[in-house]
Amino acid sequence: MKEKTPVAVLGATGMVGQQLLTMLQDHPWFYVSEMVASERRAGIPYGETTRWMVDTTLPPAMALLTLKGPNEALASPLVFSCLGARVARDLEPVLVQNGHLVVSNASAFRRNPDVPLLIPEVNPESLRLLSAQRVIGGRGGLVTNPNCVVAGLALGLAPLHHAFRLTKATVVTLQAVSGAGIPGVGAVELVDNLIPWIEGEEDKIAYETARILEAPLAISASVHRVAVLHGHTMSVSISMERTPSREDIIGAWEAFRPPGDVAGLPTCPLRPIVYVHDVQRPQPRLDRMAGRGMSITIGRLRPCPVLGFAFELCVHNLVRGAAGAALLNAELCARRGLIP
Amino acid sequence: MKEKTPVAVLGATGMVGQQLLTMLQDHPWFYVSEMVASERRAGIPYGETTRWMVDTTLPPAMALLTLKGPNEALASPLVFSCLGARVARDLEPVLVQNGHLVVSNASAFRRNPDVPLLIPEVNPESLRLLSAQRVIGGRGGLVTNPNCVVAGLALGLAPLHHAFRLTKATVVTLQAVSGAGIPGVGAVELVDNLIPWIEGEEDKIAYETARILEAPLAISASVHRVAVLHGHTMSVSISMERTPSREDIIGAWEAFRPPGDVAGLPTCPLRPIVYVHDVQRPQPRLDRMAGRGMSITIGRLRPCPVLGFAFELCVHNLVRGAAGAALLNAELCARRGLIP
Amino acid sequence: MKEKTPVAVLGATGMVGQQLLTMLQDHPWFYVSEMVASERRAGIPYGETTRWMVDTTLPPAMALLTLKGPNEALASPLVFSCLGARVARDLEPVLVQNGHLVVSNASAFRRNPDVPLLIPEVNPESLRLLSAQRVIGGRGGLVTNPNCVVAGLALGLAPLHHAFRLTKATVVTLQAVSGAGIPGVGAVELVDNLIPWIEGEEDKIAYETARILEAPLAISASVHRVAVLHGHTMSVSISMERTPSREDIIGAWEAFRPPGDVAGLPTCPLRPIVYVHDVQRPQPRLDRMAGRGMSITIGRLRPCPVLGFAFELCVHNLVRGAAGAALLNAELCARRGLIP
Amino acid sequence: MKEKTPVAVLGATGMVGQQLLTMLQDHPWFYVSEMVASERRAGIPYGETTRWMVDTTLPPAMALLTLKGPNEALASPLVFSCLGARVARDLEPVLVQNGHLVVSNASAFRRNPDVPLLIPEVNPESLRLLSAQRVIGGRGGLVTNPNCVVAGLALGLAPLHHAFRLTKATVVTLQAVSGAGIPGVGAVELVDNLIPWIEGEEDKIAYETARILEAPLAISASVHRVAVLHGHTMSVSISMERTPSREDIIGAWEAFRPPGDVAGLPTCPLRPIVYVHDVQRPQPRLDRMAGRGMSITIGRLRPCPVLGFAFELCVHNLVRGAAGAALLNAELCARRGLIP
User: Fold this and answer.
1) What's the whole-model pTM score?
2) C-alpha to C-alpha distance for A186 and A190, rounded to whole angstroms
3) Residues of chain C positioned with their CB less than 8 A from the CB of A186
4) How many CB pairs under 8 A join B and D?
5) Are B296 and B152 in contact (CB under 8 A)?
6) Which domain holds residue C9?
7) For residue range D265-279, what is the model confidence (pLDDT) as tens digits?
């Protein structure tokens, strides 16, 4: 049995960081060796300074780990970044230059053409960009995963795009509160209410989805925050070049499997896309944990009189949409020998 | 001062019935003289058998009114129907034949070409159908208002259609629980959850909106139930024949006023359409009571890369979408001397 | 007609400040002349810097008022303080010394024996402390209202204490999110959840209730935050020296009226205590607006096998519990000629 | 390896039935052989007629099982009853007479002195009543578990009662919606609201707790339904004959272990009582799954100025409070050879 790789987690006290820690707890390849938080928390044991919000228990060994400050040197070759975009923009390049492989959930470098924006089941070939980075930058590197909506949307669209060529898509989201982190949206704003706007989100959805699918796809996104804890739901309408039947589309989803060396990665689900036939599904509470949170659930495929077809899609924003996305990316890097 | 007209309310114990009673409480033209409920409640005072769910106090005089059964003769010339579709289908024609003007919120006869599907500010001329009914059926008549989503959507689209000719629209709704009546959706289904489906709703939205706008409009509707008490929010994208600017569209909304004899009706708002410039609005809790619940609120007008323009719209489903819609219809009938 | 008194509002951008502004909008005696916020907002029109959270529209005239900084001199003789305790501790004494009557909702000076802790219907005589302040401090003065739970609890207990002498009380609260201000508790903490703790709250409840009732009352408080927007509900059990019947207690509540010169104040309800006989009431959504938010609602009075009697009580935390409490206090000061 | 015992589940389509099915899915001793529902569902495969509400996937093998009607003969020696009280009152005695061991979650026979009201960790000796039943009634028998609140409360009080003799307790509950079954309370009643009443609940809490603890304990219960999905929280105050310190009480909880042959049952947690030191806990969302839902979580132990000590307790109403309670009871019966 191979030795496990030590990893560092940046932004470990946030919502995504907490989720990642629970997923790393019994990971077969990685173990958490270092955690990094903001300067004012440096030197404090993780468990003492973290408002634990995930419904599994905080692993005791992790509770005792002392937090490092953002500027301390890290010993771990693999660094997970669960930082906000602003901090990530400054910190991630430094880590890359110091020779770390940074697997980031932050949005800071997702539009950088030299940085892979990776969903392993969809565009594993984008990891080639990492070699290009290394020609310039040494052994370090940066890999990003998409926004939590895109993580589900691009995965659901991928088999349709490959089989039928997408041309247009409208997506209207109903997003969970855990996507806004801690403290996020106040309860006083969401009890008996919803908010039809999330800063920067609609642009990210349009840009990142098109980039991952490598398609000149016209995407119209309209986003909403609703009183759901985990699980982003979205209502999608699509136009395609070809004219598949309803059965063709469902068939494309049901036949979809992780390609090549992605299949069998510890966090990779057997079936990344689950189609449900119950007309009342997908529902975030009931479906977000499909494939231990790594499968998206699609339902209600029906003709759309305006664009062609419409359907509903649900993705666990913290698992497939953030922590699990980064972890799966890191696993693919590990399998390909890309960890320094 | 003219004497007030006595009115009967069918389905008075339901959610829409309760809302209507509160709006009739100090009405300048009408007073509640009779209430009708299901057979098993007949003979019981209203206040004793009703689970009062509206947050204003039940008017004491109404609490004492004894409920009539569905087959008892009614003395009131004007009858409001807040019935479910199945019961309405049987009962409303009988009342019409007995010479009552039935102003109905039920969906049973909305597709009947002889029955007005009326939003006074949008298609007041549809009331002419009432005369046709009377040629056949005596002094009675039936007038309906649209579905609670359509009540807001058709109103918001009307000035755009008249100015710029709509060709296509997609609408994705986030609908409040009070729209499902009592008991409606269980809390166990909506805590930390949403449901991406409401029976029959998408068809109603497509059909009724096109009928009211008298437009061969392709409409794609996707509906969701969310944990909001009152206020349906919808994300709308539209294509138009002409190519207005953003300012043109906002201008059309802001210039919209109730036409002719509709203006000044007791329940008619001065401005049926309110445009809000705050990017985080409309929100159901904050905006549903605009114009005492009779104005819709629109915001976030922006280019839609797929269809042309996108915006968010909020309508109070119980007021503008149901009880207030019926009441305004009745007021227009009264002003035009159409009450028997 | 007397001229209206200009008033200043400190902490006008917060939840309580917003509620107070709506209540001052058409006030017969006062008008908002100045608003004060934190230094960084000084000089900005109120409407531009405030995240308006109250469901009535922000009065346009107020939206245009330019915010003053905390250290600017104020011209208004009457100053409402909706500040947090920490800022209030520094700022309120300065304003008093500058000759203002400060009517405060902050907790900073509620335990000061020279400062009235006033509920006009319960202990109007406590206003005498103001004269004592003035002997020392000139024309200025400070009047406080109790914590939002105590505002309801002490009012509900007062007629029982006077008639039957309370000896013990346990109170378990289910408190609304608007009581925590903006942003308050995150939605991520309250969706499908509750929090059994609010910092400092249990002590305030025990101390302030006993002070207002002037009783050596043993009070045990246990507090919870729940996903309700407005309206604190509490489950109360009491022991009394005398042994009234259930009817005696309900009679004491129903007979309770505002005393002397408190009755008829603009914000004073005719019946500060409403007893409801429906076994499922009081409910915050249905009962919080009783008496335009200034009446508390009590129900379910029943024998308690441990202490004597138990009942449920609901108070609108923002109206009777905060903004309305301060406003009523100011009105009593005005009626008694205590405004400088 | 012993063969598994076939079991029948009555009321399999309800909330408790669904939870029980998931817990029986990989049970080491039992397997689901028969399911019984109401007459109108008889003959239909379980998966076709059940609105699945539990967030784990419905086991496919179970989805295919054909439902039996309430009067069909059952082959399984062990029958779980997840029925409502009214149906249970008629059906359970018949099953007992037909020789089945009925392990019931229904309230119908909990007050029958010949029927064990069992929490294995607390009063395992109550199973002796089963032998008495059999003297009269053959090989069949009936065992009940307590109400979902009592399942947590009596467990939390047991070690205190044994060590310090309880005399009085007040308990105020904040109960989850899944406790009301399907459809239960409407969302329209609980969005931005709570309900301070549940029919019959307060009596059950007082009676059942005293019976299980075999104590002449004065209990005052006040119950509330809140917008939480799973997990009943309660605020408890107690008086005791002896005068333990805070440490003594926490020590009694932390030392508590399942007694004798209860320890090691498949569904029995290692530590049925978990004390949390975080002042903001227990919270239902974060703590309900302690011990896979079979451990209760207690926190905030503090002096109560009225009764002695106060604390907060959380129990998963569907697991420890219902399905898991019945399952653990059945396991104890199995270990003791009491299954026919």
Assistant:
1) 0.96
2) 7
3) 177, 182-187
4) 69
5) yes
6) 5-146+323-335
7) 999 999 999 999 999
